[in-house]
Amino acid sequence: SEVLHLENVAKTYNPGTPAAVTVLDGASLTLAAGEVVALVAPSGAGKSTLLHVAGLLDSPSSGMVRLLGQPVEQASDAARTRLRRDAVGFVYQFHHLLPEFSAVENVALPQRAAGFSRADAAARARELLEAVGLGHRLSHRPAELSGGEQQRVAFARALANRPKLLLADEPTGNLDPETSSRVFEMLLDLVRQTGLAALIATHNPELAARMDRTLRLDQGRISEAA
Ligand code: ADP
Ligand code: ADP
Prior knowledge:
By secondary structure, the chain is an alpha/beta fold. The chain is built from 7 helices and 10 strands. A hairpin with a 2-residue loop joins strand 4 and strand 5. The two termini are 23 Å apart. Residues 13-14, 21, 23, 41, 43-49 line the site of one adenosine-5'-diphosphate. Belongs to the ABC transporter superfamily. Macrolide exporter (TC 3.A.1.122) family. Keywords: ATP-binding, Cell inner membrane, Cell membrane, Hydrolase, Lipoprotein, Membrane, Nucleotide-binding, Transport.
């Protein structure tokens, strides 16, 4: 079943000015539940822009975005924010964890924001941290964790609200190759266990090859890689 559909999406920054840049130009894609898809693009090709549009952080200049069957163009800002919070998990190259908060507090934040009690959010956070092999690091702050551990906390946080769609931008791109490979495997296992649809940007062909298929973004359009 369809989770995300983009049709003929265009995105121009600073439209109508001398600084106008068209980044997306007729981009289309469909992701089904359970599909894990690699997104490969040259640097500057608009990978982050595409992920932001797909995750409702940014609006396209034209074209259609449908998330969980809901066309998002007509939705109010509040409805869009709610849909993003409930349906989408994000992982970035750098973890963006809050430095003053422990691992369990960081992972509990999305559920606290969604209105769950402190106890329920913390229980869910502990369960997720155990799933990423960090049951012994619950009270550690980000600075007290290794790079690979920090990214695993970020994965746990991304999954806290049981999203239907995971969007990841070079999720292991700042780790050494061996850690990257190991941590990436863990992310794939988690995604496959939960039946999420995932769109994962990577420059690494070896990581792309572990996913179900590869989409290429070039000159504003998306094509299926052979
Ligand atoms: P990638 O993630 O593939 O490197 P981005 O989506 O970050 O690409 O950026 C694609 C192009 O869009 C770049 O030329 C970038 O400078 C431009 N761009 C990105 N964000 C903005 C913005 N907020 N305003 C103007 N231009 C932007
Ligand atoms: P910057 O925009 O300077 O990179 P931010 O801390 O504002 O720093 O954002 C860090 C990243 O988080 C960016 O890629 C941004 O697009 C993304 N981001 C911003 N707001 C949200 C949000 N509500 N949910 C998920 N990601 C977000």
